[in-house]
């Protein structure tokens, strides 16, 4: 069994993304296509990174608009058969419901509070209280509206799990192996901590893709998770 990791293919060009995908797919369950690749290359990027391996594709477009527009966008990309499609939970119940109804065969993953935001950022945005409160509130709202997956920091995974129960898939970016640079991530934890907190899918980008050998980096993290009982 492959490790429950989605490698973020945040590459400047399609050749690099496809090469990373080929290197990591023997070790991880999922590859993630984000805004950089999708906006540059469009829908064809999904087939390019899926390749012959048939690895799961996570389409991280973070849709956030009025319900009718998000429904149209979700319907348009559902033909690419992504395993996951992200929307911002802050778009509200009607928007999340519209996405879930428009793409019934794709898991709608609601992004709660971006992992790049620190507590002081939330205050400056006018969101009172600790990040965890906002994450829990948005998680409950999103699941009630039909999201079957949630995106949160690994620091919040245990509390979100307690809030939404065992069925919802918890996806955690903001994952950094011990000692790795946090870069623009603010609310972070190690892969082992994320798994122990109840995360189902760990999003890891630069610690793998910026390594001299992305395949070896993915294999190393997968092996560390296996030692903690997270992947066979
Ligand atoms: O809250 C969020 C939601 C999405 N992301 C995405 O995850 C990866 C993280 O990449 P790293 O290189 O491991 O930092 C990236 O594609 C983000 O767009 C997130 O970081 N936080």
UniProtKB/TrEMBL annotation:
Lineage top rank: taxon: Bacteria
Pathway(s) per entry: Pyrimidine metabolism; UMP biosynthesis via de novo pathway; UMP from orotate: step 2/2
Annotated ranges, domain Orotidine 5'-phosphate decarboxylase: 4-221
Catalytic site: 60, 62, 65
GO biological process: 'de novo' pyrimidine nucleobase biosynthetic process; 'de novo' UMP biosynthetic process
CDD domains from the UniProt entry: OMP_decarboxylase_like
Main enzyme class: lyase
SMART domains the UniProt entry points to: OMPdecase
Assembly with partners or alone: Homodimer.
UniProt name for this protein: Orotidine 5'-phosphate decarboxylase
């Amino acid at each position: 069994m492959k490790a429950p990791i989605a490698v973020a293919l945040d590459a400047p060009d399609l050749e690099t993304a496809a090469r990373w995908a080929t290197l990591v797919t023997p070790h991880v369950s999922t590859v993630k296509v984000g805004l950089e690749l999708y906006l540059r290359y469009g829908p064809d990027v999904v087939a390019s990174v899926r390749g012959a391996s048939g690895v799961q594709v996570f389409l991280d477009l973070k849709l956030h608009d009025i319900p009718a527009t998000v429904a149209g966008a979700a319907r348009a990309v559902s033909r690419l058969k992504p395993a996951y499609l992200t929307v911002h939970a802050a778009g509200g119940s009607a928007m999340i419901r519209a996405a879930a109804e428009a793409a019934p065969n794709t898991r709608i993953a609601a992004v709660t509070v971006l992992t790049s935001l620190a507590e002081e950022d939330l205050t400056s945005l006018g969101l009172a209280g600790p990040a965890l409160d906002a994450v829990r509130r948005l998680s409950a709202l999103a699941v009630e509206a039909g999201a079957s997956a949630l995106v949160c920091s690994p620091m919040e995974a245990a509390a979100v799990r307690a809030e939404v129960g065992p069925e919802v898939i918890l996806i955690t970016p903001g994952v950094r192996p011990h000692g790795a640079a946090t870069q623009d991530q603010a609310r972070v934890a190690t892969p082992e901590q994320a798994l122990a907190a109840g995360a189902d899918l760990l999003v890891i980008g630069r610690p793998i893709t910026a390594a001299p050998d992305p395949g070896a980096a993915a294999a190393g993290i997968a092996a560390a998770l296996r030692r903690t009982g997270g992947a066979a």
